[in-house]
Amino acid sequence: MSDPLHPYLRPRRLRATPAMRRLVAETRLNAADFVLPMFVREGATEPVPIASMPGVVQHSLESLPAALTEAAAAGIGGVMLFGIPERKDAVGSGAADPDGILNVATRLAVKTVGDALVVQTDLCLDEFTDHGHCGVLDAAGRIDNDATLEIYRDMALAQAAAGSHLLGLSGMMDGQVAAVRDVLDSNGYADTAVLAYSAKYASGFYGPFREAVQSSLVGNRRSYQLDSANRREGLREIELDIAEGADIVMVKPAMSYLDVLADAAAVSSVPVWAYQVSGEYSMIEAAAANGWIDRERMIHETVLSIRRAGADVILTYFAIELAKSLAAGSSEW
Ligand code: PBG
Is residue 176 one of the residues assigned to a domain? Predict the structure, then answer.
């Protein structure tokens, strides 16, 4: 019998020094595992700050190359591009237009950093529709799933032609992965990869993003994005997207959905990514601006926890800053 006053099992031994803690860390962060989301605004003449996301801007086509070069120099894995068109319409015409802002920005990005970074593009209609939904509407004003797939196919071809390496399917329409894979394969784009935002939840954490893309959404996305109550259904979406040919699947948002992420990581035969979304970013910035939390420490802890839960790669607005501080060598924050 051990004497309860003198424990002989002492896990604290492995926490005694910074060197020991560093050596036994089960999870590590690497710059190569981060993807930076970036916004590009048509007609902008200089970077436009996003008030609800301090430190994040809508780039102009002029300011984009330097920002991309900085991302490549920081050693991150890739960038995810979002376009903000000057004009929106009911069917999101700007999305499939080769001269639409996202496709123009993609060509520029591939030309500037295409060898160093994986250039990724948001494949969704919400930035391009005047009603702000991720799909087109039928006569009754409901989301028309299958008509939307036709537009996604056109959008996929335009993005692949612009040189995007990885199409980020974030619209949560049924059958979108199979539809996009089919159109890519039958048009000579077998090498263009598909990232499926598979378990994407209807979330209040997207709030600041709506400002970032000047969304005109009225209503909500609850008829296509997942209900926060549902864990099993998240896994079902992951499995369906893998069956439809997704090269990578994603869980989004990240921090409030780590259970879904861990489930997905346990069963997925393809990489599992997670997106630390705008609201997750802004909460940290706002609390830090008030002096209520240690900003750097919270960035590290939140991204580490997403990784620990099973994400292979993390989309985060902190990507460059985090990469730079890892390079500076700090292992404890
Ligand atoms: C859809 C899309 C959204 C985000 C990424 N892709 C918005 C939405 O679904 O409402 C949100 C990302 C973020 O909040 O950082 N194009």
Answer: yes
